[in-house]
Structure formats: structure tokens, C-alpha cells
Design a protein that fits this description.
By secondary structure, the chain is α+β, with helices and mostly antiparallel strands. The chain is 35% helix and 28% strand. It has two domains: 229 residues, no CATH class; 320 residues, Beta-galactosidase, Chain A, domain 5 (Distorted Sandwich), CATH 2.70.98.90. It is built from 13 helices and 27 strands. Strands 1, 9, 11, 12, 13, 14, 18, 19, 21, 22, 23 and 27 form a twelve-stranded mixed sheet that branches. Strands 4, 5, 6, 7, 8, 10, 15, 20, 24, 25 and 26 form an eleven-stranded mixed sheet that branches. The chain has a two-stranded antiparallel sheet with strand order 2-3. InterPro entries: Membr_insert_YidC (IPR019998), Membr_insert_YidC_N (IPR028053), YidC/ALB3/OXA1/COX18 (IPR001708), YidC/Oxa/ALB_C (IPR028055), YidC_ALB_C (IPR047196), YidC_periplasmic_sf (IPR038221). It is a multi-pass membrane protein.
């Protein structure tokens, strides 16, 4: 029984190591060659025209903006980002996040969206359908603009729905068709907020009915994730690809390789589409049509080497002499859960904690609580570890007490083994009788590690997925808790604490098992060399508290045993 328990502990440790190694593997999608675009299908019924066409066709193909339009990009600067909008099509072609640096040692802002020779990653909206302005992807509408530079000096104070004043920048783009229809696309930016409201107004001054469908696309090539972490010999492989959600199906991934083969086509009110990368996300959230939420069709497609995910509204009818308004929200920024959850159901789950998300969520909440107090993520990890150990103290104490008793009766076990020699049945009977007499459960030694496994793995994903901990310093040489220790000091300390902790456990009677247990601290030290410093810090604090707890329990059990032996002798 004791031997089985030890193999269980070994197995648990190896499973932990294996899962951690798997966590480093890449989850990137690779684009296939051009996918053929299906032809548009137009259908009508008696009550309302409904146009069903490829969502990606409008605005996916290569842009043919003339040089003049390219030179006069509209630039918007807020306290959070610099944004460039192309008047040709009214596409968002560049987003720089001012509060996030490109890398730990870079003073440049992190670039989310861009459209140049090295990378294409843009956000588009427009109208397609019977009278759509974007039916021809090679002849996008050229919008007229009031000016090409906006900043916070242009912001106006308005009251929100809660009656509070907020600074707002409005950027209107106007396009007039030959048949006297005016399309006004207005981007609205709020100070201190990442979401961008994009309102589309159609004013029909023509004598005929105007019909169209609003679409919103996110277009990205197959370039690598600029936010991925380089961890020495490992390259952290977090998810890069599409995602979508509805009120019924909150969060779903769609790899770039599946944009055509497993094409997204889902109708939903209150849905969203996104492209997810490490720490950051870009998403379209359909809004209201004339003040009422509308049911959008969420879709994906391929255009040559471009990956397209977006939404399409139902058919919109604007009778002659009338106007209508329809809007959507675009988000391109850090995966801040508190902000994303208010935009759409499930969008906050782009902070993907995997199958251990309930535990990871609690750990992150604990980290946030302590960070609000101490203002440092490293000390927050230490305080969180202490809290977790205190919560698990009664259960772990019971396990360590049983292990301490096994340590005390180890000489008696060795004597029995020598006495009964090859008679394994007799030895097993005597061993079980000894366990019962001493109230020892050999399996209890597995519990501390089995409990720590999910916590350890969940914390790993918290450190890897929470943008709040990106480039977060602790002290001295640890200036990025989400990256490996550059001097490998923490992993070595972790290995030492693991060795000390194992020396407090009952040693295996089998020589081979004893050798394996001695090698385990070395193996885990090697594993930890390239893992986030914050995770190693957690393991060091956890081991240190365990050493103190186990030392105290061992001494207590030894004293009780000595007292019992003295009483028995008298």
C-alpha cells in the first residue's frame, strides 16, 4: 500500500510537469491558400428584403486607395491610443496602445492594428447589398472629412446615461452617392475608454427606396503574434485566431485554418466576433438599428491569405425622404475582464484560463485584492500563496501528520521487512495492522500535491493570460513576473526548498524509489528554469510554508511518540 501511494505521488508530479510542458506548445493557426468566395445570393419576401451575401466580400480584397487618400489618413489621439482611419472606405488601419509598450525594454507603444508592407490587420465597416456603397471591394467609397487630426483638445463634455460628464471626440466621415443618398459614418471616442462607437446614418434624398446591409469585418493576415513571449529556448504559444460568442454560446474559438473549412455562420442578437492574441483582442459588437438591438449574422471567410471574421446586419430599408441610423462597437486593446464583460456576454472569456477557469478566476480576484492593497504583483503573489496555504491548512496538516507518523514508524517497518523476508503476504498483513494501530493513512501523502496541482496550473494561466501582469515587476532583478527569471535564481531556490521538503517526508524503502525521489528536485528545477518568475515565486513560498508546517508537525509527532514509548516502558 505504501509503495502504491508513492507511485501515486510520483505520477501526480509527472502529470503536473507534463501539463506545464503542454502549456508551452503553440496554438497558432496556419492559413491555407485562397478560399474561393461564394457568389452573393439575393432574396426577397413580401415584408422586407433580405440580402444574403458573403460577409467578407465587401472590403476584403486588396485596398486600392489612391495616394492622396493614403497621405491624408485621419489621426485620432486620446489618452489611451493613437488611431489612424483611412478616408478610403473609412477603415481603421492603425491602433497604437499608449499605455502598453512593445516589449519590456522598448519605449515604443504596442501596435495592435496596422496596414503596411509587413502586416495587415484592419477593421472595416460599410454597406453592401442592393444599394450598398461597398459592393465593389476595389472601389471603396472615398469619404469627405472635416479635418484629419483630432485629439483631446477637440473633445466635448457630454453627460452619459448615469448623468456623469465625460469627454467625447466625434469624427464624422461623409459620403454622397450620385443618386443623392448621404452616408455618414461617425466614430466616437471617450476619454479613458477603449470601446469605439461607430454610428452609420443613411439619409435618403433620392426618389427611390434605399436598401443595404451593414457589415463589420476584422481582417488579418497570417503574421505572427507581436505580443507573444520569448522564454529562452521556449516560445510561449498562446492562442492566435478567431473567436465569437452569443448569449447562448458565450465563447468559441475558431482557428485561422478553419475560417473556410468550418466557416462560421451564426445568427444572434447580442453576439460578437473577435481576433484574439496574447494579452490583446480586437472585436466587433453589433449595436442598435434605430434604437433597437438587431439580430446579426456572425461569419468568417478567407480572401487569399487574409483571415476575415465579421458580422452582417439584416436588410435595411430606407424609404425616399427618410433616414435611419445603425451602429456597432469596436474594441481593440488589452483583455481587461472588467471592461470586456460590459460590452458583450462572453467577451471577457477571451482571457482564456482554460478548463481550470473557475480556480483561475478566484486566484485572479485574490491577486487583484492584494494588489489594491500593496500595489505590487510580486508581493500580491506571496500574499495570495499564504492565503491559499491558510485555507488548505487543516487538510494539509492532517496529511502531513499522517506522513510524520509514517516517518516515525519507518524503523519498525524496516524491522518487519527483515523479519518476514520474502513472505510478502505476512508482511502486508503486519504492515496493515501497524497502520491501523498507529492510525496512519499512507494515501494521505498524495493529498497536498493533488490539491496543489490544479492551483499551480490555474495560476500559470493567470500569469500568462492576465494583461495586468504583463511586464509587471517585483523587485531587484525580477522586472517581469510573466517572464522567466533572467538569472535563474528563483528556480534554484525552488529546487532547494523542494529538496528540503522531501527530506522531511518518510523515505522510500525501495532503493530505486529513493533514487527517483532524490532526482525529482533536480528535474523540477530544470522545468522551472524557463517558466514565469511569478509561478516559481508561488512555488517557493508554498514550499517554504510547507517546510515550516511539516517541521512543526514532525517534531510534535516525534515528541508524542517518545512520550508514548516512555509510558509503555513504565
Amino acid at each position: 500500500m505504501q509503495q502504491w501511494a508513492r507511485f501515486a505521488i510520483l505520477g501526480a508530479m509527472f502529470v503536473t510537469a507534463y501539463l506545464l510542458i503542454l502549456a508551452w506548445q503553440k496554438d497558432y493557426g496556419h492559413s491555407s491558400n485562397a478560399a474561393q468566395q461564394p457568389a452573393a445570393v439575393v432574396s426577397q419576401n413580401t415584408s422586407q428584403a433580405h440580402i444574403a451575401s458573403d460577409p467578407a466580400k465587401a472590403g476584403v480584397a486588396a485596398q486600392t486607395a489612391n495616394t492622396v487618400a493614403q497621405q491624408k489618413l485621419i489621426t485620432v489621439k486620446t489618452d489611451l491610443y493613437n488611431i489612424s482611419i483611412n478616408p478610403k472606405g473609412g477603415d481603421i488601419e492603425r491602433v497604437e496602445l499608449l499605455n502598453h509598450d512593445q516589449s519590456k525594454n522598448s519605449s515604443q507603444s504596442f501596435v495592435m492594428l496596422e496596414n503596411d508592407a509587413t502586416r495587415k490587420y484592419i477593421a472595416q465597416t460599410g454597406f453592401k447589398g442592393v444599394n450598398g456603397t461597398d459592393n465593389d471591394p476595389n472601389a471603396r467609397p472615398l469619404y469627405e472629412v472635416e479635418k484629419t487630426v483630432y485629439n483631446l483638445a477637440d473633445a466635448k463634455s457630454v453627460k452619459n446615461k448615469d448623468g456623469q460628464e465625460e469627454k467625447v471626440i466625434s469624427v464624422p466621415l461623409v459620403y454622397k452617392t450620385n443618386d443623392n443618398v448621404e452616408v455618414i459614418k461617425t466614430f466616437t471616442f471617450k476619454q479613458g475608454a477603449y470601446p469605439i462607437s461607430v454610428n452609420h446614418q443613411v439619409i435618403n434624398r433620392s426618389p427611390q427606396l434605399w436598401q443595404g446591409q451593414l457589415y463589420g469585418n476584422i481582417v488579418r493576415d497570417n503574421s505572427e503574434d507581436p505580443g507573444k513571449s520569448d522564454q529562452g529556448i521556449f516560445t510561449l504559444g498562446t492562442y492566435l485566431g478567431g473567436a465569437w460568442g452569443t448569449p447562448d454560446e458565450h465563447y468559441n474559438k475558431l482557428k485561422f485554418t478553419n475560417f473556410s473549412d468550418e466557416k462560421l455562420h451564426k445568427e444572434a442578437q447580442g453576439g460578437w466576433v473577435a481576433i484574439v492574441q496574447h494579452y490583446f483582442v480586437s472585436a466587433w459588437i453589433p449595436g442598435d438599428f434605430n434604437g433597437q438591438p438587431f439580430k446579426a449574422t456572425l461569419e468568417s471567410n478567407k480572401d487569399n491569405n487574409l483571415n476575415v471574421i465579421g458580422f452582417t446586419s439584416p436588410a435595411i430599408n430606407v424609404p425616399a425622404g427618410t433616414s435611419m441610423a445603425i451602429d456597432a462597437t469596436f474594441y481593440s486593446g488589452p483583455k481587461v475582464q472588467s471592461e470586456l464583460k460590459d460590452l458583450a456576454v462572453g467577451l471577457n472569456q477571451t482571457v482564456d484560463y482554460g478548463w481550470l477557469w473557475p480556480i483561475a478566476k478566484l486566484l485572479f480576484m485574490g491577486l487583484q485584492f492584494f494588489h489594491n492593497i500593496v500595489g505590487n504583483w510580486g508581493w500580491s503573489i506571496i500574499l495570495l500563496t499564504i492565503l491559499v496555504k491558510l485555507i488548505l491548512w487543516p487538510l494539509s496538516s492532517k496529511s502531513y501528520r499522517s506522513m510524520a507518523k509514517m516517518r516515525v514508524i519507518a524503523p519498525e517497518m524496516q524491522r518487519m521487512k527483515e523479519e518476514f523476508g520474502e513472505d510478502r503476504m505476512r508482511f502486508s498483513q503486519e504492515m496493515m495492522a501497524l497502520y491501523k494501530r498507529e492510525q496512519v493513512n499512507p494515501l494521505s501523502g498524495c493529498l497536498p500535491l493533488l490539491i496543489q496541482m490544479p492551483i499551480f496550473l490555474a495560476l500559470y494561466w493567470v500569469l500568462m493570460e492576465s494583461v495586468e501582469l504583463r511586464h509587471a515587476p517585483w523587485m531587484l532583478w525580477i522586472q517581469d513576473l510573466s517572464a522567466m527569471d533572467p538569472w535563474f535564481i528563483l528556480p534554484l531556490i525552488m529546487g532547494l526548498t523542494m529538496f528540503i521538503q522531501q527530506s522531511l517526508n518518510p523515505q522510500p524503502a525501495d532503493p530505486m524509489q529513493a533514487k527517483v525521489f532524490k532526482i525529482m528536485p533536480i528535474m523540477f528545477t530544470v522545468f522551472m528554469l524557463f517558466f514565469p518568475a511569478g509561478l516559481v515565486l508561488y512555488w517557493i513560498v508554498n514550499n517554504s510554508i510547507t517546510i515550516l508546517q511539516q517541521s512543526f508537525i514532525n517534531k510534535s509527532v516525534e515528541k508524542a511518540r517518545l512520550k508514548k514509548d516512555v509510558t509503555s516502558a513504565d
